Amino acid sequence: MSTTQITEATRDLSSEEQTRLGLYRQVVRIRAFEERAYRLFMEGLVKGTSHLSLGMEAIAAGFGEAMRADDYTFCTYRGHAHTLARGTPMAGVMGELLGRASGVCGGKGGSMHLTSVEHGAMGSYAIIGAHLPIANGAAWSAQVRGSGQVAVCFFGDGTTNIGAFHEALNLAKVWNLPVVFVCENNLYMEYTAIGDVTAVEHPAADRASAYGLESIIVDGNDPDVMYEVATTAIERARSGGGPSLIEAKTYRHGGHSRADPGEYRPDDEVAEWLTRDPVPNYRARLLADGLDETILEDVEAQAHADVDAATEAARAAPPPQVQAAYNNVWADGGSSWRN
Amino acid sequence: MAELITYRDAVARGLAQELRRDPTVHFIGEDVAAAGGVFKATKGLLEEFGPERVRDTPISEEAILGAAMGAAMTGLRPVAEIMFSDFLATCWDLVAVEIPKTRYMTDGQVSLPLVIRTANGGGLRFGAQHSQAVENWAMSIPGLKVVAPSNPRDVIGLLAAAIRDPDPVVFFEQKSLYPTKGEVPDGEIIDELGVASTVRPGRDVTIVALASMVPRAVAAAEELDGLGISAEVIDLRCLVPLDTTTVIESVKRTSRLVTVEENPRLCGWGAEIVSIVGEECFWHLDGPLTRVTTPHIPLPSSDALEDEFLPSVSRIVEAAQKVLL
Which residues of chain B are within 8 Å of residue A331 when distances are taken between CB atoms? Predict the structure, then answer.
């Protein structure tokens, strides 16, 4: 099977102003949130670790705009972006990062485990590969229930070398599940380049044919491309056409996590990818296509105001009560294991 | 009316009872549908419920449990078979890291009403990679309920309870028990998780056992009777929730405790029972708290060796005699 490469949207989106404003709002909000998360980590307010999507916003944005409200998102520990892109309130996400009772998981999840079922954000999974089979399960359930829902599963390039990736793709195809697998290939697993440890050039796309899937590589830094690709794959899944595997090429602006300055990456590579920054580039495109700059400025101002408000709310929120640590092990609300 | 059926047929009957009752119950696993299971414990289910609800999977344990987990999160009540409990190690991330922690980490946003059924334990000369008794692995993970029936009636009642339970349950079927028979009443059977059963009353020593160790403990109690020792046998039935009350009340009367477990010595579930009884019943005790276990070795294949190392009736008898010295 040949590889489909998509580096520009094939549809003329210049007339779809609301969609594109939605995409711009998404990338700007995620960018503003992630920059704030970084700052709060440096201030010691975000504890543990955090994995940012700076530079990779367009992928979550494209899918966030293309998904139906009741579709399911499964993402990784680098999941602030995907969780926000489903409409999860920033205050709840920020509260979770700060370990506060106001967090979406009451402070029990943290940066790596954001979940907001109400918004279709079905969890951020911190074990590489774990959530691909789980996304299949949600898709299987949707298929059985005839609900028309689609599960979208985001993961990194490093995931393509773990067994669960292969088990999940095979079962998704065999059961013709309404699931979209999205590999965010940012060229590095953690510290090691994916190309140094992978048998094929394109870690996801080159494996697609083994599972009877189309090999698709797209520009993950282009919101228009991501929206179009997402719309196509989701429609295919919703109409019974089965799973898709999309490899979105992108780049993280920083290291793998807060402990990593990312110094293993060549300067010229970093510089080249910074010229492909999705946020300013998309802004320039929208202006070139005739969108009013004041509208974009309003979007930016609102995003920053939302991040400020979320930060203030999280800072002001109390920590979880100690008793809460004993809650919700079981469905009865408690943690008792004996009588 | 009651009927004599095998432990194997009880599995199929229990599953059928729940598949019939609740359309959200689905059953998946390797060779479970068309082949009726490698132990033939799921025969006839495909014919009655069709390929959408009783579904064969590839040999992909992570894919199986992932499917069960994702489906349980979104409205189904899946039952997933992991053919041998040894294979839980191939999907341990799902068993130990994903499934039990998700409700907690999401602070109750997600429910996982799912059952992992698996054939556990030794006795069939399969060697160290298909004979492990690993119920203690599951017991050590907060967020998993752990069930291990010893007889056909309990297979049905506890399987029904596990399927109806809103939390994830690992359901260990002891594979050497599959051909054993027991009386099963007609009609629906539904039990409660976390309730032990005193299968034989006694005065001098409490013997706590699980799954295939229960018939051995009963046989030992009968032998002990002939030696003038009255042994009470408790079938725990579940490790989580753990019915400590039944055990503690019994030990308060008998003053002596022997646990009989199939898992290897270190960190077996008997150690937990002994620890609880030691802490909470110490002043009632008249003898050392004693565990009968498989030695801390991988289980050998040869029948002569396997029979030597799994807890036997004679080892249980000896242990009971010793605590009464």
Answer: 103, 111, 113, 165-167
